[in-house]
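Sorry to interrupt, but I need a hand with the structure work. Could you write out one complete protein record for me, on any chain you like? Just paste the record in under my message, thanks.

. . .
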Amino acid sequence: MATGLQDASRKDWDTYFMDIAYMVSTRSRCPRRHVGAVLVQGKKLLGTAYNGAPMGVPDCSEAGCMIAESYELAIVDGKEEMVKKQRCIRTIHAEQNLLLFTDRIDREGSTVYVTDEPCWTCANMLANSGIREVVFHRAYPKDSAKVNELMKQKGIVFRCLETYEPPGQAGMNVIS
């Protein structure tokens, strides 16, 4: 008999899909950061992806990270400062893999749940992908201001699940 009351033990949709994104991230072999992403249309899961080397190519755990360094002018504590950015160029990001392995028609009007706030490159790709919303958990401060502005310009809902707690079996220490 339905009473209209929600079962207290039942997860809300944001938690449910973010839990899936975190579990997907456990497939990553990146020693710096495990990232998972899921594509959702309504309440239907359409695709999953995680970060890693291209299929059939040695990954970072086998061949080591390929770190590229760059410098960017940023405002730190109210002052302009050159900030060093490091990124692994061996790895295809979870959002990029999600876009590679899903169809544009499925992405139109959909939501992407991703464990980490997208970097600038992924944000640009997501902005042109047809999605209407990005939901993330862990902040990525290196690109946050630019990414937030881009999402606002594109009219894409961009939400951080600040009070979310990942499933225990999906945990990892993140190297910034």
